[in-house]
Design brief:
Number of domains of chain A: 4
CATH topology of the largest domain in chain B: Uridine Diphospho-n-acetylenolpyruvylglucosamine Reductase, domain 3
Distance between the termini of chain B: 37 Å
Number of helices of chain B: 10
Largest sheet of chain B: 5 strands, antiparallel
Strand order of the largest sheet of chain A: 5-7-3-15-12-13-14
CATH topology of the largest domain in chain A: Aldehyde Oxidoreductase, domain 4
CATH class of the largest domain in chain B: Alpha Beta
Number of helices of chain A: 16
Oligomer: heterodimer
Distance between the termini of chain A: 71 Å
CATH architecture of the largest domain in chain A: 2-Layer Sandwich
CATH superfamily of the largest domain in chain A: Aldehyde oxidase/xanthine dehydrogenase, molybdopterin binding domain
Structural class of chain A: alpha+beta
CATH architecture of the largest domain in chain B: 2-Layer Sandwich
Helix content of chain B: 25-40%
Largest interface: A-B, 33 and 31 residues
Number of strands of chain B: 9
Structural class of chain B: alpha+beta
Helix content of chain A: 25-40%
Number of strands of chain A: 27
Radius of gyration of chain A: 27 Å
CATH class of the largest domain in chain A: Alpha Beta
Strand content of chain B: 15-25%
Shape of chain B: globular
Order of helices and strands of chain B: HEEHHHHHHHEEEEEEEHH
């Protein structure tokens, strides 16, 4: 081992630390490293394939003799399936029915039809007749909390409480105590590519092409579901059209694999948009009752949150108050969370689970407390937020948005259009870690190839692998061929928790470093034979600081006669450790901001209380922001050298969507002098807050 | 008609389709001193981008330009646009046998009615989904058909009270061939309020038309969209183009509204739409 001194930190706050690294390993990059490829902007190495349609998604896969499966789904919130009659149409090959099943949400599966074509499968599904015994349902959390029990064991699950300090004492010390209730809606993942899958059995086992965030996780799940042995299942996801957390489960893959085995033919499943919305995941809705106290000097003395969340029929709502403790380390706090079961589709992890909803409540309350003690909300944050990175980011962001303009009194503008500025902070983990394995090859012709069993769900990991390899080898990213998205490749993590890049890339550097050493051993001159090496993700040797800090500032325009809100500008200041590819890092943050604005203003799953169906299971009435709703986004990549590993990067997938909705809500309140406590912030709610209805 | 959407949601399952797109006589836009003749197959994009229409009948060009998305506007026709079936989500979903589908209840009455009607909503709370219908009614257009000949647009749209199963006066098998808008020299304007600026239905839209004489609007009328099962016309006659008079007229026009549990905000939007669209007529100068 060698002891090295590394410069870590960020502009305005550097320090030196000592780390021990293996003698023959790569020297960790620190704040003073001069890098040729890393941190520059690189187009995706496969951009041309994506743009020309050469890229093959699971949805594109066609196999000879392939059959098509269609799932029939329950149209009611709660019903028992009686007789299922599927018409005997030419081309229908196979039907499986779930007669007698109790369906707990509209979208629960009732039968599956397999046919020669997608059209025949759909036609048979449309014309199928199913008898239902309709049972009582509850589709809102309010109905489930207050109404009669719908689920065995009750609609409410057991309360979970955590606390620190003495909240009663804290409330006594406060100059102002406020109690507010915040509500957030269910947001569906709305991946452009549905949860598609194709499976083909042959003598050796089964190959499954599926749209997943974890090819190797899916391999294990499918192996177990079909009771196969290790090595019999291969899962491929060369390209994935979005996941956002909804594509870890192997349900689609296991379904087609089972059908393919049974029918001795390749089988494809292609869920439609309505199925995606109703049955394939969502960010759970929340109700958060917050009681908080603040001293005259801006120090928060007590924070009590009673929250409810609903993961649909399955329970497991995910605590919306998740980020409370590590965004603000208050002395006295208590949080109690109750999961509530409703007759809705099951929640699945969704880009920073719990965080956007939790931060909306926390940061809304902080702004309101600040106003009550007559302080600038940014100053109140500085008093309570101990992250040195975020405190530096506050100043950077304030300057970029023009925070000083906020000084004009709310509502003082002439005319119905009012402008406002608001902000919110955010935190996330995303350090990554072992295991992750890489195979690196130098072919006889001198070309390089890197293999990883990770997958690219749109974040650009494929290109990032090429960037790190190119830096280490002294070539261009375009010179590196990258193979990913195949479970037969060396171990790569599932893409969740923003850990793919920070787990995989240090292994890439390790492999590239070894390859370089091997090439050197062969001596300079003409390329020799093929060289293959492997690299592993080492343990973190020392981390400068845990957590990814970020904050966003939003400027909005509100029409006080119509309640229409337009986001004009967002400044997104984001710590991402070391930037690997500036272009995709910026793109990732822009995407997080857009998804956050969409959550703040538009998206909402609407379940009907009469029959329990999702009323807007399409892209007409389930509203996702479009080009005209897109503001100017000013991405400020706030680079922090943290010496966690030889590359020093942190994950960036989730953090940039955490603070957006809260920042927008605070900006709206700043513009109109009235606060909206419920997302999405639609015209009816704005007009209601202004007492205009 | 939005036949493909209706087929996708299993409301219509025709055994055979006739392609009208091959009939050239149903296409094209002709504008002369008497007015504009618009083929039923003219696309929304053609209407939105037509310089003569934009000059003489800005309300129509604006309404067509606000609809849907550029891709949809390039293929959607004006004939199809005014004949869209209700976009009410209860109408569109098979498990809700509503009045419009021969059932015996309107699920919107006690359901999710945020986007529903605030006028003429005692039987069925659908809102007429067409933007262009709103403008055409304000412009006193005439619908020409291959059946009965001519139907003044005021008589073209049918309330649920008149006939619960359809939204237009067209007879079965009758085909819209042209729309004619008489040139009257009236100014016109169209605006809409919606949740999302890209690809969204209007929460409330308004087309206003009037002749401006000094500071007076003569023969002033405003047609509101997305507030009733038909484009909702309000005739104001002669009105001073002052903020006070327009505000008074707007307040008066929405007085009869009967909002449902979740759409009271639409009354405020309607009031604002009336005021702003009329104010625009008074402000506009050649």
């Amino acid at each position: 081992m060698a002891r090295l001194r590394l410069k870590v930190g960020f502009v305005g706050g550097y320090e030196e630390i000592e780390v021990d690294v293996p003698d023959d390993g790569p020297v960790p990059w620190d704040a003073d490293s001069k890098l040729a490829v890393v941190s520059k902007s690189h187009p995706r190495i496969n951009a041309a394939d994506i743009l020309t349609g050469r890229a093959r998604f699971a949805t594109d896969i066609k196999r000879r003799g392939m059959l098509y499966a269609k799932i029939l789904r329950c149209p009611y919130g709660h019903a028992k399936v009686g007789r299922v009659t599927v018409p005997d149409i030419a081309g229908v090959r196979h039907v499986e029915k779930k007669e007698g099943k109790e369906c707990f949400f509209a979208g629960d599966d009732v039968a599956i039809v397999v046919a020669d074509t997608q059209e025949i499968a759909e036609e048979a599904g449309r014309r199928a007749e199913v008898d239902y015994e309709i049972l009582p349902h509850a589709v809102t959390m309010e109905d489930a909390i207050e109404g009669p029990g719908v689920f065995r064991g009750g609609n409410r699950m057991r309360a979970q409480t955590r606390d620190e300090g003495d909240v009663d004492q804290g409330l006594k010390e406060a100059a102002v105590v406020l109690e507010r209730t915040y509500k957030t809606q269910a947001q569906t993942h709305s991946c452009l590519e549905p949860h598609s899958a194709v499976a083909e059995f042959n003598s050796g086992g089964v190959t499954v092409w599926t749209s997943t965030q974890s090819v190797q996780g899916n391999r294990e799940q499918i192996t177990e579901a079909l009771d196969l042995s290790a090595g019999q299942v291969r899962v491929i996801a060369e390209y994935v059209g979005g996941g956002f957390g909804s594509k870890f489960g192997a349900q689609s893959g296991a379904t087609v694999a089972e059908l393919s085995r049974k029918l001795d033919a390749p089988v494809k499943l292609l869920p439609d948009r309505a199925e995606e919305h109703a049955a394939n995941g969502n960010r759970p809705p929340s109700i958060q009752k917050v009681k908080a106290g603040i001293r005259k000097d801006g120090v928060v003395t007590a924070w009590i949150v009673d929250s409810y969340g609903s993961g649909g029929y399955a329970g497991g709502g995910g605590g919306p108050a998740n980020p409370l403790k590590y965004l603000y380390p208050f002395t006295n706090w208590r949080k109690t969370h109750v999961d509530v079961r409703i007759n809705g589709g099951a929640a699945l992890p969704f880009r920073a689970p719990g965080h956007p909803q939790g931060v909306f409540a926390i940061e809304s309350m902080i702004d309101e407390l600040a106003a009550r003690v007559g302080m600038d909300p940014l100053e109140v944050r500085k008093k309570n937020d101990t992250s040195p990175v975020r405190r530096a980011q506050f100043d950077a962001g304030a300057k970029r948005i023009g925070w000083s303009r906020r000084a004009q009194p709310t509502g003082s503008e002439q005319g119905p259009l009012k402008h406002g500025i608001g902000m919110a902070g955010a935190t996330w983990g995303g350090q990554g870690g072992p295991p992750a394995e890489i195979t690196a090859v130098r072919h006889a012709d001198g070309t390089f190839e890197f293999h990883s069993g990770a997958q690219d769900i749109g974040t650009g990991i494929r290109t990032a692998i090429a960037v790190i390899a190119a830096e280490e080898l002294g070539v261009r990213p375009a010179d590196i061929k990258v193979k990913i998205g195949d479970s037969d490749l060396p171990y790569g993590p599932g893409s969740g928790g923003s850990v793919t890049a920070p787990s995989v890339l240090p292994a890439v550097r390790e492999a590239a470093h070894k390859l370089k050493q091997e090439i050197a051993k062969q001596g300079a001159g003409a390329p020799g034979g093929k060289i293959t090496v492997t690299g592993s993700r080492p343990e973190d040797f020392r981390r400068y600081r845990g957590g990814v800090a970020g904050c966003q500032f939003a400027e909005v325009e509100v029409d006080t006669e119509t309640g229409m809100v337009r986001v004009l500008k967002v400044v997104a200041v984001q710590d991402c450790g070391r930037i690997v590819n500036r272009l995709t890092a910026e793109s990732q943050i822009q995407g997080g901001v857009l998804q956050g604005i969409s959550y703040a203003l538009f998206e909402e799953r609407v379940l009907d209380r009469q029959k329990g169906a999702m009323l807007n299971a399409d892209f007409l009435n389930y509203k996702i922001l479009g080009p005209r709703d897109t503001p100017d986004i000013d991405v400020v990549l706030f680079e922090v050298s943290n010496a966690g590993n030889t590359v020093g990067l942190l994950g960036l997938g989730e953090p940039p969507t955490v603070p957006t909705a809260a920042a927008v809500a605070n900006a709206v309140a700043n513009a109109i002098g009235a606060r909206i406590y419920e997302l999405p912030i639609t015209p009816d709610k704005v007009l209601g807050a202004l007492n205009k209805i | 008609m939005d036949l493909l959407d209706l087929m996708k949601s299993s409301i219509r399952a025709p055994g055979r389709l006739v392609n009208l797109l091959t009939i050239d006589e149903l296409k094209g836009i002709d504008v002369d001193t008497s007015g504009a003749t618009i083929g039923a197959l003219a696309t929304l994009a053609e209407i939105a981008d037509h310089p003569d229409l934009a000059r003489m009948f800005p309300a129509l060009a604006l309404a067509a330009g606000h609809a849907a998305t550029p891709q949809v506007r390039n293929v959607a026709t004006i004939g199809g646009n005014i004949l869209q079936r209700p976009r009410c989500w209860y109408f569109r979903m098979a498990q809700y046998p509503c009045l419009k589908k021969g059932g015996d209840t309107c699920f919107a009455m006690d359901g999710e009615n945020k986007y529903h009607a605030i006028f003429e909503n005692s039987l069925c709370a659908m809102v007429h989904p067409s933007n262009t219908a709103v403008a055409l009614l304000a412009l006193d257009a005439v619908v020409r058909t291959a059946g009965s000949g001519e139907i003044p647009i005021r008589k073209f749209f049918v309330t649920p009270d008149q006939d619960i199963l359809r939204e237009s006066a067209l007879a079965e098998g009758e085909l819209v061939t042209q729309l004619f808008i008489p040139a009257t020299g009236a100014r016109s304007h169209y605006l809409e309020f919606r949740e999302r600026q890209s690809f969204d239905w209007a929460l409330v839209s308004a087309a206003a038309a009037a002749e401006l004489e000094g500071q007076t609007l003569n023969n002033a009328r405003v047609v509101l969209g997305s507030v009733a099962p038909i484009p909702w016309r309000i005739d104001l006659g002669e009105i001073a183009a002052t903020d006070e008079a327009l505000d008074r007229a707007a307040d008066e026009a929405v007085r009869g509204a009967t909002p449902l549990a979740k759409n009271k905000y639409k009354v405020q939007l309607a009031r604002t739409a009336i005021r702003r669209s009329l104010r625009e007529l008074a402000r506009a100068t050649e």
